[in-house]
Design goal:
Radius of gyration: 14 Å
Order of helices and strands: EHEEHE
Structural class: alpha+beta
Number of strands: 4
Shape: globular
Strand content: 25-35%
Length: about 100
């Protein structure tokens, strides 16, 4: 069974609002694939994924993701899994807001 999301068929409800994750980690090459793996193994393609190396010594990696179609329990489970990854220092999760 696939948990992929068809963007054109999402209901116009609060469940359709994407979950947003903000991950702060040490800038290590293994972090980005480990973060993405948590979604890939569930058949989920993030709506948006952006990563940037930051910090005074270019030693931090900031990754922002937006993910559609998650129920609250799955979204919270993914947040906990992200927080347990090697080199991850902080994970924030929120819901996107509908404009208009």
């Amino acid at each position: 069974m696939s948990t992929s999301v068809a963007y054109d068929r999402l209901p116009a409800s609060s469940e359709a609002l994407p979950h947003c994750y903000s991950v702060l980690a040490r800038a290590e090459v293994s972090v980005m694939p480990r973060v993405l793996e948590l979604f890939v193994k569930r058949g989920i393609l993030p709506r948006r994924c952006h990563g940037v190396v930051s910090g005074a010594g270019h030693d931090e990696l900031e990754i922002d993701l937006q993910v559609d179609g998650l129920d609250a329990d799955t979204a919270e489970h993914i947040q906990r899994c992200l927080a347990q990854l090697v080199h991850v220092e902080r994970v924030l999760m929120s819901r996107a807001h509908r404009c208009g």
